[in-house]
């Protein structure tokens, strides 16, 4: 499992763009994690799935709500990563009104989740292998803090916890 001090794995995520600009075409666009994280401070949180109850009601809204607070604490970007395809993440971004506040990044094949060792097997619930629920503060591609939830919990990966760590 990835830990504090480790570098993010060199995976490629997908991001759905509804408008063309800054080198992004409309539709899914690749996001090379190593390149995208270089030189930035990122509040990254991951969750089991788009449109799921806790993820939609609590996890994403907290990060959207505290966007300005994260910026004030020196965070350049907020990333939400889930084992879903880019089209689902794009639809969820519209539903959650993330706009330019939270980058909704698809880990469709689970390659990033597997590379971090932060997977959650929900096969018995018909969802397959997903990402565990966690948050991390990443500085220039390296994990500065890591908050991994126990199965079925939402206690340490919330926006308030990561924001306090970003301010420290």
How is this fold's topology laid out?
Layout lengths: L11 E6 L9 E6 H5 L3 E7 L5 H13 L1 H6 L4 E6 L3 H11 L5 E5 L4 H6 L2 E4 L5 E4 L2 E6 L2 E7 L10 H9 L1
Parallel strand pairs: 3-4, 4-5
Antiparallel strand pairs: 1-2, 1-5, 3-8, 6-7, 8-9
List keywords for this structure.
single chain; 168 residues; alpha+beta; Glutaredoxin; 7-stranded mixed beta sheet; two-stranded antiparallel ribbon; 30% strand
State the strand order across the main sheet: 2-1-5-4-3-8-9
What is the name of the CATH topology? Answer: Glutaredoxin
Poorly predicted regions are: none
**Net shape:** globular
Describe the structure.
This protein has a 7-stranded mixed β-sheet with strand order 2-1-5-4-3-8-9. Helices cover 30% and strands 30% of the residues. The protein has one domain: Glutaredoxin (3-Layer(aba) Sandwich), CATH 3.40.30.10. With 168 residues, it is of the alpha+beta class.
Briefly summarize what is shown.
This protein is an alpha+beta fold and 168 residues long. Helix content is 30%, strand content 30%. The chain contains six helices and nine strands.
């Amino acid at each position: 499992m990835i830990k504090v001090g480790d570098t993010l794995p060199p995976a490629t995520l997908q991001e759905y763009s509804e408008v063309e600009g800054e080198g992004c075409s409309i539709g899914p666009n690749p996001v090379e994690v190593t390149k995208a994280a270089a030189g930035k401070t990122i509040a990254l949180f991951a969750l089991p799935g788009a449109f799921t109850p806790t993820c939609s009601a609590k996890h994403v809204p907290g990060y959207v709500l505290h966007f300005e607070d994260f910026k004030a604490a020196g965070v350049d970007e907020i990333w939400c990563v889930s084992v879903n395809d880019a089209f689902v993440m794009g639809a969820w971004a519209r539903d959650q009104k993330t706009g330019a506040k939270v980058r909704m990044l698809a880990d469709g094949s689970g390659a990033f989740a597997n590379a971090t060792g932060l997977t959650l097997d929900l096969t018995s619930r018909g969802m397959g292998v997903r990402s565990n629920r966690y948050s991390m503060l990443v500085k220039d591609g390296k994990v500065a803090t890591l908050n991994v939830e126990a199965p079925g919990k939402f206690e340490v990966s919330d926006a308030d916890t990561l924001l306090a760590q970003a301010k420290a």
